[in-house]
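Sequence in, structure out. Go.
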Amino acid sequence: MNITRLRVASTLLAVVTTFAALPAANAIVNPDRNVLPGEAAWTAMITLEFDDSDPIQFCTGALVSPQIVLTAAHCVIDTPIEAVVIRVGNQTTASGDGVTRTAAAVIFHGKYERQMSYEIYDANEVLLETVEGDVRPGENAIDSDIALIYLDKPILTIKPVRLPSSRNYQPKSGWRTYGWGSTGENQDIETDYLLTAAQDDHTAATAQSFGDPFEKILAAVRVNGESSSGTCFGDSGGPLVDRRNILIGLTSFSESGICSAPVATLFTKVSAFLDWQKRAVTLAKKAVSNRAFKDARQESDIPVIGLE
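Output:
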């Protein structure tokens, strides 16, 4: 049976197509300046490429080591991984700009999927079932939106972004985010260039509106009157860095469905998942060498595994 699974939590920077839950090809709204030559070359453009169709830009990521890209879990769950192409080092969508790789294995945070509430529809868009996520006492249902893509070959010509030194790393000021796609709130004005926007820390203020623990999440936006500058659909998994160019966050979701609204985006706090990342790398390497780890949900030879 052909089904579609749609998450029904807060507004992800994503939409649903008829074949999978995929973010749209839209990105930074109201960028404050152009990206400089060579700036943030470690930003990854993640696309879907099917035969006889143009690439679909649907997520962003960050190269953190020669063979590892971090992105959001919701970018890879229920996504046709065999069609995913990762391009790093490009500042435009022009063919030949940047280094292109595919995924050899994908590890996503299992807690994120376990806690996901979603609706299941058949091919005729008839609701079959509503599934409630498994959120256990003391847990936050939104703080584990992280995934690791193990590339088919390392990228040796681009310097990866720096990771926090420890889980106690305190981000410096001067936050900035990067992403691909449209620049308008109507999500119909696309760009062929990597975009960027300065961000202000809204973590403390945003945490007050959530009853769950908030220590694994950052919140950021730059408010300009009744509008804002920041992330939009398609920025999912993209980098948030501080003034030292340390990767402090990965774009997760917003409480508003209008990208230009003065509402903060929530980012997965990278420093809180350093130990998880180490375990995920080990599992990815093992999965690549042992196809028995293949996830039965995937119709390809690429292992896609949840790890808590």
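Check: The helical segments are 110-114, 203-207, 274-289. Confidence is low (pLDDT under 50) at residues 1-11, 14-26.
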